[in-house]
Amino acid sequence: MMKETLTGIRAGSYLAYFSEQGLARLEFPSDRRNRKPAEGATADLPPGLCRWRAITRKAVEQALAGRKPAVLPALDLAAGSAFQREVWKALLTIPPGQTRTYAQVAALVGRPKAVRAVGQACGANPIPVLIPCHRVVSSDGGLGGFSAGIEWKKRLLAAEGRAGFG
Questions:
Q1: If residue 115 lies in a helix (H) or strand (E), which one and from where to where?
Q2: Each residue of 96-155: pLDDT tens digit?
Q3: I want to staple 122 with a disulfide (CB 3.0 to 4.6 A). Which of 32, 69, 111, 133 is the partner?
Q4: Is 122 a catalytic residue?
């Protein structure tokens, strides 16, 4: 797996991990995971992945600005279970500026009683922001969780015009 430190206009630094199949993971700074990007992480990126890198950078910038990315890089979701991959694909259907509850996502994937499992799948999402798990909220009106921290979730929802959570 190739690792690259990317810097986006609105993103600051983040790490993008690519496999031969595509973007496999994004890591953003948070209060819980304050990691310094590895030096030289971009030095040996194979030429075939340069296109994915450019697409990833643009997609992240668009998402952080509250817009739906025009194009996503190839996504490598192989690290997830079949259920998790199903949830992650369902999350891609939630438009910017809209939210769904964990229960609504569970119903969307045909497993209405799997609300907690949907929450766990959202927490395990390897490509937050581009796979918009931040758009999934609690049925009681609360934010729920977010792998990069609640402040990031608030920031993302506010950028999409959904201020007032939390």
A1: helix 115-123
A2: 999 999 999 999 999 999 999 999 999 999 999 999 999 999 998 888 888 778 888 888
A3: 133
A4: no
